[in-house]
Amino acid sequence: MNSNEIRRRFLQFFADRGHTIVKSSSLIPAQDPTLLFVNAGMNQFKDVFLGREQRSYTTATTCQKCVRAGGKHNDLDNVGHTRRHQTFFEMLGNFSFGAYFKKEAIDYAWELLTKEFKLPVDKLWVTIFREDEVAAEFWLSGPGLDRDRIIRLDEKDNFWQMGETGPCGPCSEIHYDLGPAASELGHSNCAFPCECGRYVEIWNLVFMQFDRNSEGHLSPLPRPSIDTGMGLERVASVLQGKISNYDTDLLRPTIEQACEIFNVEYGASASSDVSLRIIADHVRAATFLISDGIIPSNEGRGYVLRKIMRRGIRQGTLLGRKEPFLYNLSGYVAEMMKEAYPELIHTREYVARVIKTEEERFAAMVSVGLQRLEDTIAQLAKAGKNAIPGTEIFKLYDTYGFPLDFTKEIADERSMRLDMEGFDAELEKQRERARQSWKGDEGRINPIYEKFIEKAGTHFLGYQAIQSSSRVVGILIDGKSVDFVETGTAAEIVLDQTPFYAESGGQVGDTGTLTSPAGLARVMDTYSPARGVIVHKVQVEFGNLSVGEQVDAQVDEERRLRIAANHTGTHILHAVLRETLGTHVKQAGSLVAPDRLRFDYTHFAPLTDREIEEIEQKINRIVFRNIPVQTEVMEINQAIARGALAFFGEKYQQQVRVVSIPEVSMELCGGTHTRMTGDVGMFKIVGESSIASGIRRIEALTGFGTYVRLEEDENLLREIAHNLRAPRTEITRAIARLLDQQRHLENEVEALKRKAANSQIDTLVESPADIKGVAVVSRKVEGVDASMLRELAENTGAKIGSGVVVLGLTSDGKASLVAIVSPDLQKRLHAGKIIKEVAGLVGGSGGGRPDFAQAGGKNVERLDEALQAVYNIVAELLS
Length: 879
Ligand SMILES: [Zn+2]
Ligand SMILES: [Zn+2]
Fold this sequence. Notes:
The strands form seven sheets. Strands 1, 2, 3, 4, 5, 6, 7, 8 and 9 form a nine-stranded mixed sheet that branches. Helices cover about 40% and strands about 25% of the residues.
């Protein structure tokens, strides 16, 4: 059974039994600061299990893409060396949120394995938690398992918990006996649960039935739930009769593909096999991570991605490959996995570009690192030391990306020791930094805001209104709660309800006024420090405002309209970019302000002028079609199923707001928008740049902003036309004419200068000195450009026929000299040697060929003296 079929039949089996098939979530966890990457099927249901979120279904089934690398679950070092460790894997699972429990979970699992997948019953073994009599009973009564095939294990193996506190419960695992041939210890007759590799765990059923409080006490959950996980690679190995995951159709074809690239054979040597397995796994992980929007970087998730890619590239080097190869394999992975993950086809080109760039960058870094290591070793050797300090090893490894085993190898060759303890200490510090960098914003919230949430929070009215009568429920000055605030004071004000939009999703907060019976406060900004509470940052202009009183809250309407135009414009831009450049375009950030918008997106190349024009035109056509902008609140799954674009890493509620422009765009968005696309007004791109590898930024204007810009352009044109004394339609022609005239004049000046220079020749050749039978002219000239000095000397030389000509001039405070020697004299005299001596006299240097040489110097006042010296120099050279 191939893996596509396994996936399909698993999901269908549970769909037939009333489960909703839910799409795999992105590998980027939705606002879960405890998690680096999604690593289990239940991640996307965490809030449902915790009762914080409701869904329209109570049972679900998924095939979830997962990555385990970095953070708590670090399997990176084992990958390639074992049969089962991978950084990327897929997890099949079925879930019950209070709908069914142990009996059904056990019956379903057994039926799927033995009936649907037809695994022989006598190869299956089951483990349960020591005290779980109920599970034991169901295994006996349902599947009718023999009592001796059910093994009882301790908490360590068969008790699951989400965290220190919260839902937890016993679990039950199903194992498969691969037979004695699979034993890595050569056991021929060992019994389950021997851990020699013969028995492989394929499915874990978790029975969530308790809630653990902070004292460790367990109380029963009101609605016990089911969470199961079956590793796709493992079950594929069983169903395909393979001992190793790497021999299944999920990984082996990539290995074979790599074999072709490196011209090696799989199975030929243990060490090259390890390399091939690492490459096959890492390229899968990199492909999926980049496709989900992660970019290699030096912190957080991007850092782990970079590490995975570099480990893969390094293995290629070990196999003798210097040129990029991983990017090529990523295309192959996309092709292989496209049935289950069609998005890989759309992002294929983009992913390959990102990987190739990283491969090239890494190659460059390695050569720099090598140089640094050589220098370090040389310095240490000079100082009589024989150990490379840990900080240095770490710097090479971390900053220079220089592989550790390279360092080890080279140190070995030079008989240098490595301070690995120091290195480990640095590494631990780095890990701590990495953990910090993805910890999110938790812990920054002033607990005082939480109190407002408990008191029902702030009701947001701003989708319908820009004005409201509201009650002041809280005033904070410097983070402390107060009863009232007076003229000239800055404060934070919380209202029971407000039309003010709090900054989020890139859209800036509203400004406006709060008017009380006794005072007026200007709202400078609005933000939401915690979900459910909206804070107005104010400056009291006059009078005072007190807790409990009614105020008139008024949003600055014109500013709000401009923000809305820019926000709707951003959505249209996003849609048009995807249509024009490809669906690999993903939003990486945005800023929606009243005067401009900024949109960051994943793409690998700068936009051409042609593309910018095309994008602008498409957007403006949509604007002028004046399509209604619709907002709707719906279930998240329904929204995703309809094709709404969601922002990765964003935590969405079960009910989401969807902003759509029919036939153009559909996005999950909480922002304020225009009523019709026509309200966006004219859209103009004013900037396009790169902000990081693989991420580009567009800056644009809409409506009034575009008008202001056009006005500026107009003034500029008018000024140019005025200065050119030409009507605006004639501007380009007038400029062309000016440039033409200028070229003409330049040529004329040049000709005149040449004429003036050459007119001096007659004077120069009048009475050359005779030095031992050689005619020598050494003179200072005036009214000549330095650029024309050579030509003048050559013409002078031509006139005297046989001889030496040295000419000098001063310009811009510098002396310039040239020397030429006629061909018949070049055996005896060398222009370069002459000029070298002369140049010394004017404080400069120079040289050249036997026939021609030139020099310059700063001591202009010694130029005459230098030219006079030429006669003696020539005389000496001739003797
Ligand atoms: Zn064994
Ligand atoms: Zn939006």
